Amino acid sequence: MPELIRTLRLRDLVLLIIGAVIGSGIFLVPAGILNQVDHSVITAALVWIFGGILCLLGALTYGELAAMKPEAGGLYVYIRDGFGPLPAFLYGWSMFLAVASGSVSALAVAFSTYLGAVIPLGPWAGKLVAIAVIAVVTAVNVWGTRRSSDLQNWTTLAKTALILGISATLLALGRGYSEIPASLWSAHPSGSLLSSFGLAMITVLWAYEGWQFSTYSAGEALNPRKDFPRALFSGVVFLIGVYLLANVGYLAALGPERAGHAETIAAASISAVVGPGAAKIVALTILISVFSAANSVVLTAPRVFYAMSKDGLFFPALAEVHPRFRTPAIAIIALGIWSAFLACLGRFQELINYAMFVAWIFYGLAAAAIFSYRRRHPELERPYRVPGYPWTPLLFVLAAALLVVNAVFSAGKNALIGLTIVGLGLPAYFLWRRRRAQLPTTTQISDDESPDSTGP
Question: Taking residues 73-83, what's their average pLDDT?
């Protein structure tokens, strides 16, 4: 039976992390974050810095896990080994139903929206463009991991160069510097500012979303034990720097007040300092950016469904590897079809918003699995150990828990909808478990095993 091949190098992993994270968020969400913190420049900066530090804590933790357990599926594998197949399945279920598929759909729709700013598109043409984007990235990823990674590398380099160029232009030509000192702190500080800070963190973490996805492809890395810790650390640190630079550029171009009211803050900023015609440069950057981000999701997320299927907890066909291309082709196609369906719905974005915060439950669980591995499997090879253990993973887990709790109390009904989406996986899990029990051969994970019994 054909298996996945190891082809991803260190530079591929670094560019995959950067390309997965930089989508449309940095071009849009800075204005919303400024509004959430009452236009306080320092508070907004702290939101971006704290969000980056939180991701860095997680990256350092996942670095040990990926180096120790370099298997396809990444976070799914860590949750499965640490807490059993049920929470691992619910993670994979939410990935397929909303998080990964919704991300691909949102990025494809964003591509058609920004293309419409350059070439007028009607409603139906916009949907066809979105479906075409999904079809292209699906086909490339079925064709081969090496080809998809090469595409990812070039598009990531292109959009990073454009973002740095735009930021440099804004910093050099911006006229909003004089307005910044008066808005360093909130003019109306209150106790609710802490809650607003927490909600703004959820927004900024959406902009940082994607650095975790690289772990799904650990089974295809050439030297995962050495490269994953390096890639996760350097990728996240680079992203923090780029995001802070872009935010300073927006403030330099517009000032805090105008920046907070600019829904398309990147386009408004470049238009203010160069002229309206320059907004097309931003549109081009976003087109490349969202295409690259969509490709990164399709390059990585199907490996979770592949791992679930190998465990007997998802459709068996999704565990098949194409004999020629050596990719989980059916899993990739399944994600593409469901993503295209969501893109056609038009009102799926609320579904994604509901489910996105729930993903942080599983991010915290995956990081917490490191304690189980350390305690139950001290014999496993650990070429890299997370610095500051146990505080580094513990802080990440606690921060993830606080984010989820704050979202539940602040978002109320919406948070319950997100939990319901995950809860819908319960009957599906028991259905697949019953089906697996009826199979003549044993699967990779047994319900009678302890959650941590999986070997290296």
Answer: 95
